[in-house]
Amino acid sequence: xxxxxxxxxxxxxxxxxxxxxxxxxxxxxxxxxxxxxxxxxxxxxxxxxxxxxxxxxxxxxxxxxxxxxxxxxxxxxxxxxxxxxxxxxxxxxxxxxxxxxxxxxxxxxxxxxxxxxxxxxxxxxxxxxxxxxxxxxxxxxxxxxxxxxxxxxxxxxxxxxxxxxxxxxxxxxxxxxxxxxxxxxxxxxxxxxxxxxxxxxxxxxxxxxxxxxxxxxxxxxxxxxxxxxxxxxxxxxxxxxxxxxxxxxxxxxxxxxxxxxxxxxxxxxxxxxxxxxxxxxxxxxxxxxxxxxxxxxxxxxxxxxxxxxxxxxxxxxxxxxxxxxxxxxxxxxxxxxxxxxx
Length: 342
What we know:
Order of helices and strands: HHEEHHHHHHHHHHHHHHH
């Protein structure tokens, strides 16, 4: 297995990829396992399994948006966009209007997430096929679809941050191929899924800059930074008195002073829970991501999760892992591409 290493070298021209026929085996794997996960979610909804709190929140918010109402979510007690900057929901409104007579909003959101995650499998397969070959790419996509963190993500019904997974995969491939417009489009789509994705988009910008794509890199760093400052300084305080309600999850609720904050961050970083978290992320991927640290470094959400005061951020069972997943598997492909030909 062999491929050209991404991020190494400073080409001056875009890389044009040849069109390849659809791999029916890979497509069958994606469709088959997607149908299983989607079926489980729809079965749980139909048989009154415990409803995910977040699914109820986003369903009510999207329902109100679709009916041109202020998206105040009574379940959460705040405006939908005062809770999280999930502006991707605005892009879903035409779909809600079109399929509203056939599907209620909760089931529609479940299906939207399933399509996004299935799409991520196809994007990963395309990337792996390019760098590894047909047989290896099929194995990679199968392992990806069976990856425990992705399974938990899929079976969490619906989280808007999960929709960023295919967008981040697309953004990485576009930066690697020096396709500036595509990189910007993919990054923008990822950015509007949730505010915390901004850190990952900025990391892609740093990578692009180091590869010689300076204009793109600066845009991908400065754009998300300005966006986040605008959210924190204007949008969240306007929609929710007191401003951003999740800020304490990074430095710790009730802490005061720099030394206390730093001490808390270091204590959480060295916790046994983080050891379990890292094992759960990397062992199912055969520890291969560790062989491609440059790619894995783009998963900046990983260290943020590890120092978070929110314990669920350090467990693969929850959606906080979503921005990490694409780079774990891009690193797998990169590591495999560096092995000698079999």
